[in-house]
Amino acid sequence: MGRRSLPKLDPSLQLESHLLSFEALDSPWDPTRIYGRRAPLEIEVGSGKGLFLLTESQRVGAHNFLGIEIVRKYARYSAARLVKHQVANARMLQGDGQRFLVEFVPESSIRRVHVYFPDPWWKKRHRRRRVLNDMFLRHVERVLEPQGELHFWTDVEEYFQTTLETIATHTQLQGPLPVPERDAEHDMDYHTNFERRMRMHGLPVYRSFFIKRHEHVPIPAERLSQASDTEAEHADHDRP
Known about the structure:
This protein has about 240 residues and is of the alpha/beta class. It is built from 9 helices and 8 strands. Strand 5, helix 5 and strand 6 form a beta-alpha-beta unit.
């Protein structure tokens, strides 16, 4: 069940304040230059149409939020939603999430990492392109602050189980911890547009989260050089 077409953007909206690019980022990245304040930072990798980013940033106004989306049209759409609703504590970054973690994010600096309904890359030969690979997960562990959390949801049971195994093998994150399903109070009371579609069709959603309860073990330098190898492979791919 793939992504649907997007409504046209309002041409009067100025996206520059809410749509970032890698070229505009410092390394290491200092969020205070973007948000104008120091606050706990949450990032979402693969924001799609930006429903979670919009609603959660409004709900938790004391935190800063960054959504990352590799597909340009979705990154622009999500940024437009933030601009339209005048959300001051959230931004969109157009680009590859793994590259962002590896090249720009300091150790122990993120409160939560969210990954919801990532592309499952169904064909076996394409599985290496999945965002939740061992290197990505080790960098998630590196950038999470103590007691920081990784939240992962998918509608693909095989991807869910494989990711749980990868986390157990390659990190010391504690989990999986259960996330109970709650009743929606209104038509858009869902984490993401994709969750809404799954639940409206009566299809299962697999949810979990993990906690960092220890000091991070540094990643070997030779692994760092592999950070951007798959970025181009993802850039033009929408979920089937």
